[in-house]
Each structure stands twice: as structure tokens, then as C-alpha cells.
Amino acid sequence: MDLTVVVTFFPLPQDRGDPIRVLMMLRALARARRYTLFVVRRPETTDADVTRLRVLLPGVAVRDFTATPYRLDRLGPLGRYQESLLDGVPPWVRTRYSHQLHEALRTRAGVGLAIGEAAGVYVRDTPLRWHWDKANVLATSSRQDVDEAVGVAQQLRARYLARISARFEREALTGCATVSVTSAEEATRLAREYGRQADFTLPSCVPLPDGYVARPVAGRLVWLSSFSYRPNLLGLHRFLADGWPRLRAAGYTLELVGSGLTEPVRAALGEHDGLELTGWAADLRPVLGRARAAVVPLWSGAGVKLKTLTLLAHSVPVFSTPIGREGVPATDAVRTADTPVGLAEAILTTTPAELDRMADAALSLVRGHFSEARFADQLVDSLDRLGQLGTVDSYEGT
């Protein structure tokens, strides 16, 4: 039985959570059996990136596609929104859509694995038996965006996106045979929104950093996220406004690390004292190695957060809101508070000896629950149990 895997966001570079999870899945599958990968390039993807992906996935036939331009792009946002409405997909999904890829899928047979929310668009009108691996339930997360929207324009946009996202998600779920989510909380949301039970839960995973030595500096905190994802930035600003002043007065510094740091964002964050705006770091080891602890101030979002797992894999104690630690079992590695002031208080009252114990617990947690090997076993076993890997012999890629 043929296996076709579809990814709508090229997984290199590993500059945010989605590409990290995607590449983990692709590598895990490559060790279990052969498959064909259909992947949509980002605008900045190069031929060298495609070649590198092929090297990382031995035995996998990689077919890359470019996204199809909007037909109504000449009309600007008005045209793009109108077109996405006619197509029944959210604008961000339409931006990653390749008509050529969709047509190629119509000639495939066997099983299809759609990875990520936007890949659900290919479930429609294709003859494959589909499994959809979902990072989050769009109907729930898009309603959170409505609650956070400020002003009439943002409210209207958020409400439109919430409606079309739920419509798109419902149709895709109807077309797929099986579905997986990243946490028990997400499984509950899926059942509540659509009356659909998740066939299995597949938490994300992170690699343990090679050659990593932690040399934490007292009073040095780190924030790790994509600046371009609105809930991340809203949470950061809320923490800086209400929690950070106490920590800064106590002598703490906070390094901000992640992709998407634009000049307007940099200027807005520059109003706060004690921040180091690093932005994108190709190698996180020296950055996280000097952090005494990390803060994950999130009040919206869903699923297991790759940022939280990445911090834990680098033995960094994490202070997080409940949403930031979703899917992470009870552990000494993470301390939780509901408010910015609560996060600051938790950091201030944690002793150096307790931070050391948190760091040790962080590494143990990732090794036991979120390692690549464990992820691979869970993914392959779950798909095999559902009959989604077919009956061909497994093999070990070289």
C-alpha cells in the first residue's frame, strides 16, 4: 500500500515550532517505511534546502511544489479574502495551497498523511484514505483570537477567520478516516466542537542538543518564541507590563529569542528596561546555556508547545502559565502561575538549589516523555494499529 505524506510548510529551516514537529514526523516515518513526500515550498525555500531535506530523509521520494498565487491578488487583501471565502479555506491556508500538488494527489492511491492544519485542504476530492495530524483545533483557537481582538477592524477580521476556519475544519474532518491531536486537552476540544473522537494523541518531541553544556548566569532569564505569532507577542507584552517591573527591580535581565523580530516590534519592546533583543538564533545552545530560567507567558493557544519542550531539553527551568505547559505532565521542572505577577513571584521565590533541581528534572522529563525515539515509536505504532501504514514490510533507512 502506497503512503503519501503532505506538508504545506517546508520544514527547513527549523525556525519555529511547526517545522520542528514536522521534520520529527518525517524522520520517524522514514525509519519505518518508504513513502512519497509532497511538500510546499516557502517563498524563501531554495534548491539547496530541498537537497538537504532529501539527505535528511533517506529512502523518501521528495516532490516539492510552489504555492499557487491568488487569482485575485491584484485586488489586495479584499481580493485575497474574497477568494479564500469562495474556496472555503482560511487565507493563511490558501497562501500555502498548491493547485499542482492537489492535482498530483488525484492520481495517487493508498493512504495519505496530512501533517498540520493547512494540509487538511488536500483531503477534499482526492482518492486517498487520509489521516490528519492536527497541531490544534482551529474552531477553539480562532475564537480565542476573537476574544483578544482590539478595535472594530480586528474584531471583524477575527470573526471572519473564526467562521471560515470552523467551516474548513469541519469539512476536512468529514473527509479524513482518522485524526490525531497533540494533547488530551486538544482531544477534549475536538470532541466538544465536532463530536469527533481523536484516534490517538501524539505529543510533540524535541531533539536533545549535541555537545550542550549549561553554564547558567544568575538573574538571567530567557523568552523563546516566534515574534510573528500574535498570542506569543500579546503574552509577552502582558508579562512585561505587569510582571517584569518587579523582576527588573531585583536585578534580572531577560533575553528575547525567536524568529520574526521586525523593527516595529523591536521598537515597541525597546520601551522596557533590562531586555536583550536577540531575535533569531541559528544555534540555541549558547543562548539557552546561559539562561538561569525561562518564562512562557501565554494566555491563549493550544496543544503542546515546542518552545516549552525546547527549553526543557536544554535543562532550563520553566515558569509558565497553564496554557504554556499544556500536555506536559506534572514535573518539578515547571512551575505554573496564572498571572504575570504570579510568574514574577514564582521566579523571585525560587532558590538557586531549587532551580538546580528543576534543571535536572527538565532533562529527565524530555528523555522519558518527549524524545525523538519515543515519538517515533508512538507515531508508527499508532498508525500501524489503525491500518494507516498498510501491510508492506518496515525497513530501517540508512
From TrEMBL:
Gene3D superfamilies: Glycogen Phosphorylase B (3.40.50.2000)
Pfam families found in the cross-reference section: Glyco_trans_1_4
Keywords: Transferase
Single annotated GO MF: transferase activity
Domain of life per record: Bacteria
Claim: Transferase is one of the keywords in the record: yes
Protein's name according to its UniProt entry: Glycosyl transferases group 1
Annotated organism of origin: Micromonospora coxensis
Source organism phylogeny: Bacteria, Bacillati, Actinomycetota, Actinomycetes, Micromonosporales
